[in-house]
Amino acid sequence: QPLEFDTSSVTDMLSMLNYAVTFNQPIRFDVSSVWRMQYMFAMATAFNQPITFNNTSSVTNMYQMFYRADAFNHPLVFDTSSVTTMFGMFRYAVAFNQSLAFDVSSVTDMTIMFEELHGTSALSDCNKLLIHNSLSASTHWPYTSWSTYCSSLWPHPPPPSPPPTQSPSASPST
User: Fold this and answer.
1) Beta bridge partners of 52
2) Which residues are CB-neighbours of 172 under 8 A, at least 6 positions away?
């Protein structure tokens, strides 16, 4: 059953489920007053459930929000228009493999946002490209090489042109 209680007056969810290593319930919260979600799911190593937040438009801090959330792999729909830091947001979240469409117009720090643990990441090349296309509008986007991932999403080169047609030669008049 979902974890659901009145959070409408809560302004800070710093480390709320940090080190909740066995927690694994869906979450439905009113987060309309929350400004900080720093470390919210950090080290919640078993957590892999949907997150439903009604309104994240006041959140400014998502610093290491999913740090070492080892099992987490669900789509996220957040209004991130006010977020200024996404530092390490998915750092070592080794199972995460979702595309993201975040508004990063206010973000000033995306350092190590997707840092991998010993080269281990479930994030597919195609999702890397989709994330790159969504987040690279920010001048703070550090993963510029992701623009080259997933050739299957790029239009295939056009087929070769047919050889030029030659005009039929005029037959000699007799």
Assistant:
1) 28
2) none
What is the C-alpha end-to-end distance of the chain, expressed in Å?
Answer: 95
126: β partners: none
For residue 100 the two structure tokens come to 């993201």
Query: Do 47 and 20 contact (CB within 8 A), yes or no?
Result: yes
SS (H, E, C) 88-104: CCCCCCCCCCCCCCCCC
pLDDT in tens, the chain (174 residues): 888 889 999 999 999 999 999 999 999 999 999 999 999 999 999 999 999 999 999 999 999 999 999 999 999 999 999 999 999 999 999 999 999 999 999 999 999 999 998 787 899 999 999 999 999 999 999 999 998 888 665 554 444 555 666 655 555 555
59 closest CA partner among 83, 78, 86: 83
Cα Rg for the chain, rounded, in angstroms?
23
- State pTM to two decimals: 0.84
Residue 102 neighbours by CB under 8 Å, 6+ apart: 78, 80, 83, 86, 134, 135
Amino acid identity for residue 117 in this structure: L
- Rounded Cα distance between 64 and 73, Å, is 16
In what helix (H) or strand (E) does residue 133 lie, and over which residues does it extend? helix 125-135
